[in-house]
Amino acid sequence: MSQSIGTNCNDLKIEYDKCFNKWYSEKFLKGDVRPECKELFEAYRACVLDAVKKKKIDKIISDARKDDPFPAAANSPSSPLEDINKHYHHE
């Protein structure tokens, strides 16, 4: 598995990946689409967003969005990190 953008997020990523892969193979593929792993995802996402801010990547994301925005976020007044949250948030 790949490393997280923030090295302090690696353990959370591993735990979330394990949970997601188990859910996907044992439930989702058998028709049970009820989401699981939300708490792990939320913790991992918060860690990644903090790493993005600390590395000042949020400005790069913002600039890239101006050039090629996500279709749903094209007219959104939200910040780049809020857009990332919306794009990657699994419910």
TrEMBL record:
What is the protein named? 5993_t:CDS:1
UniProt similarity note: Belongs to the TRIAP1/MDM35 family.
Organism of origin: Ambispora gerdemannii
Instruction: Report which superkingdom the organism of origin falls in.
Output: Eukaryota
InterPro entries documented for this protein: MDM35_apoptosis (IPR007918)
TM ranges = none
Which is a Pfam family this sequence falls into?
UPF0203
Q: Which GO terms describe its cellular component?
A: cytosol; mitochondrial intermembrane space; nucleus
